[in-house]
Specification:
The radius of gyration is 20 Å and the shape is globular. It has three helices and nine strands; from the N terminus they run αββββββαβββα. Residues about 10-30 and about 215-225 have low confidence and may be disordered. By secondary structure, it is of the alpha+beta class. The longest helix is centred in the first third of the chain and has 25 residues, at about 5-25. The strands form two sheets. Strands 4-3-2-1-9 form a five-stranded mixed β-sheet. A four-stranded antiparallel β-sheet has the order 5-6-7-8. It has helices at about 5-25, 120-125, 175-180; strands at about 30-40, 45-55, 65-75, 80-85, 100-105, 110-115, 135, 140-145, 170-175. It has one domain (about 5-225).
C-alpha cells in the first residue's frame, strides 16, 4: 500500500467517525447528553442524561425502546453529585417506568416530578390523579413524597421530557433549547404541575417513540389531542 493510498483511507475513516458520532452511540444501544436546567429561582444547573436502550419494539420502529435512564447533577453551591435512576421494565413486579418532568432545588433540597410511562406503570404506582410521582432527596437517597409535600413554587416542566430522536441528538442543550424540545407537548399536565385531580383521567398504552409525553394523555381535554 503506497503512502497516498494509506492517507486516503485514514481521512475516510476520520470523516466517517465524525459523521456517525451520535448515531454510533445509538448503535451501541446508549444515548447521552447534557442539558441546562433552569430552576424556579432563575439559577441554572447542568444535568447529565443517560439512556440504555434495547431492541426495536416493532419492525417499523425508528427508535429503540428504553431500558433505563439516569440523571446526574451537582447540587448548587456544593460539589455533591446527585443521581436519579429509573428502569423501564413492565415485566418486573416492582413499580418502575417513570419519565422525568421537573428537576429543582428548594432550600438546598432536590425535588423531582415524574409520571408513569404507560398503563402498566400507572397501575403499579397506584393510579395517581393528578398523574404524578414525586420524590425528595434526603441527603442520602430519593424518597417518594405526596403532592402536598411537593413545594408549590415548583410548577413548570424544565427538562427534556423523554429523549430526543437518536438521529437528531445533540451533546448539549441550553435551557432555551430544552423548551424547544418540549414545544409539541400539548397536554397541559406535562407542561405544568397540576394540583387538582383530572376528571375521568385514564392513561393510554405506552407510545414506543423517543418522546415521552404521548404514553399518557387526558381524554377529556381537547388540548391532549395530537
Amino acid at each position: 500500500m503506497n503512502h497516498e493510498h494509506f492517507l486516503l483511507r485514514v481521512f475516510k475513516t476520520i470523516g466517517l467517525t465524525l459523521t456517525l458520532g451520535v448515531s454510533m452511540s445509538a448503535c451501541a444501544a446508549t444515548m447521552s447528553w447534557k442539558e441546562e436546567v433552569r430552576l424556579h429561582d432563575g439559577r441554572v444547573i447542568v444535568a447529565e442524561r443517560f439512556y440504555n436502550l434495547g431492541g426495536y419494539p416493532t419492525i417499523d420502529s425508528r427508535e429503540r425502546k428504553s431500558l433505563d435512564q439516569t440523571v446526574i447533577f451537582t447540587l448548587p453551591g456544593s460539589s455533591n453529585k446527585i443521581t436519579w435512576k429509573m428502569g423501564f421494565r413492565d415485566s418486573e413486579p416492582e413499580p418502575n417506568s417513570l419519565n422525568l418532568l421537573l428537576l429543582d432545588v428548594v432550600n438546598g433540597t432536590p425535588y423531582i416530578a415524574t409520571y408513569p410511562a404507560g398503563v402498566i406503570a400507572y397501575n403499579k404506582w397506584g393510579s395517581p390523579n393528578p398523574p404524578y410521582i414525586f420524590f425528595k432527596h434526603d441527603s442520602t437517597a430519593w424518597r417518594r413524597i405526596s403532592l402536598e409535600e411537593f413545594p408549590e413554587e415548583l410548577i413548570k416542566t424544565n427538562v427534556i421530557v423523554g429523549r430526543p430522536p437518536a438521529k437528531l441528538l445533540k451533546s448539549f442543550y441550553t435551557f432555551e433549547e430544552v423548551e424547544k424540545q418540549n414545544y409539541d407537548i400539548s397536554t397541559k399536565e406535562y407542561k405544568t404541575i397540576l394540583r387538582t385531580p383530572l376528571d375521568h383521567w385514564k392513561p393510554r398504552p405506552e407510545h414506543k417513540g423517543p418522546k415521552a409525553p404521548h404514553p399518557i394523555a387526558s381524554p377529556n381535554t381537547t388540548d391532549g389531542k395530537k
